[in-house]
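Reopening this ticket.

The earlier resolution said the output was attached, but the attachment link was broken on my side. Pasting everything inline this time so it's all in one place.
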Amino acid sequence: RELVLIANDMTHLIGSFGVQEDYFFFKASEYARERGLPRIYFSANSGARIGLADEVKSAFKVAWVDAAVPERGFEYLYLDEETFARLGPHACSTTREVDAATGEVRHRINYIVGLKDGLGVENLRGSGMIAGATSRAYDETFTLTIVSCRSVGIGAYLVRLGQRSIQVENSSIVLTGAGALNKVLGREVYSSNAQLGGVPIMYNNGVSHLTAADDFAAISAALRWLSYVPMTATSPLPILAAVDPVDRPVGFKPTKEPYDVRWMLSGRHDPVDGVFKSGFFDHGSFTETLIPWAPTAVVGRARLGGIPVGVIAVETRMREVIVPADPANLNSEAQVKQQAGQVLYPDSAFKVAQGIADFNREGLPLIIFANWRGFSGGQHDMYEEILKYGAYIVDALRLYRHPIFTYIPPHGELRGGAWVVVDPTINGDMMEMYADEESRGGVLEPSGTISIKFRKKDIVKTIGRLDQQYGQLAQGLQSPNLTEEQKAELQGKLAARVKQLSNVYHQVAWEFADLHDRPGRMHSKGTIRQVLRWESARRSMYWRLRVRVEFEQLYKRMLAADADISRTHSLDLLRGWLEGGSHPPQAEAAAPGPAVVWEDDESVATAVAERYEELLAHIALLGDAAHARKLAALGKEAAASTVSSGIEQLFAGLAAGEQQALLGKLQARLA
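Inline output:
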């Protein structure tokens, strides 16, 4: 496949970026963007080039306060007459002076330009240019950086701006080197760049997506990554022949107890009998990235029936996040934070949003296994901007240009704000939601709901309505002939009965609230498209994905033919063509196939594959009709003489036979 490869040369000025390097980098990046080609950057550099004007450095002189005692200081730097004449006026900006004491003609230096380009701010300007080029490249094509050595300053920013990165062990990504920082701090704090931006830092904070033992391993990982990505930004998905049957049941089933969610995605060997229980995706196809960062969220790429997809899933287990101590702060200590599963924290919300943004630009459909009880909303997490990162998820989904399936897995739950940020109405054209028959969804968990809507008084009222013994006691309490002692006795028995039944009726209330959160209600309220059964969910999702991918490709062709066509109208046309079985005039009628059942995704996908050329012929006619409408509209807008001139030019461009056919049609219309 074609790609654009950019690399630094560490043997030339330690890989630093000068003006020429910046321009070359910019043009290579532009080449990749214009053609939609993957842009791979091998990063090994020393940042923006630092330079001094050597021609001035070797010739300037010093105006001392007292030449005999130089330690008293100096007044300015200057060039003598001979040096100024030799360097010319372009090396420095100077002011001509005559020293009163010696009569020497001096050219006092105001500022130094230098005779060579690439000494200072021009390199920073070039760094800004390639930073912008990398940011644009991430938006417009596939970008990936392999950090094979140190990446300093602008080199570090290029890694982040390209977003996807593979960091080789013993490499570093730093803004300022350890030596320079030690000078700023006034003591030897850092012993190496690895302490600032090595793998333990950059892999754990989400800057590096993957790590590799050496350059060869990094290149292998890059090639695997590229296998999920279309050839160019506008090419179709690289769909492979399915080596794992799409009709097979999913062997591993999620449990109510915490488990490793990767087993659900990839499968695992049963610890009891050693038999492999398959996961949801094609065997061996799931590749996880950003593993140690925000560990309660799982992000990666996989294949479903050979179709590449982006994957977001949720850890159900308690995870640890380690914040290292800062060597520059003698009082700091490493911190270990516990993060519960099924909860969105600031870091995991950011990770989800980042993953969505990456998948979108890679042209991948997205499957979200949504299993969140909600957002963490404590004071610390509010301060750590959980609202901001949660909103980022909505922003990323709204801008997504490819099919998105949100699926609540078995024993999973989606509640409160976590439901809100992945609801299909965020991007109605692309998003669909599904729920497993054993999943739950609602504003709060049942315990939270009954604490607000089914309180103790409601439980007592329910006991009174359903419990016969309580009812008899309550009825007896209404008798007007009771003494105070008898009333007190009955009230005591009522209270005892309520206490006796409280636990079981609390369970009844919990069950009642839980019945509101089940998939059947979700479907009846139109909040999900379908209730799925886990064992067959792989098959159902595959055929739905096939349909959505094919329809998106056909819709792009229809838009190219008629820029004014809406998505709704295009789907109506496709349905009519597939269900009606009509053939375009120039298409040879094929033998009638089985009837298309629009609600059956396998039926629709099969029909699209079998009648693809026929659909393309329909789209070609759609384009012809659009061109005809444009010509007619131009005729209405332009003056008669202009229309006549245009028709003559069009007529002259036709072949003789086409001219005769057009004349015949016009004569028939006039007759």
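Reporter confirms the inline version is readable. The mean pLDDT is 94. The longest helix spans residues 484-514.
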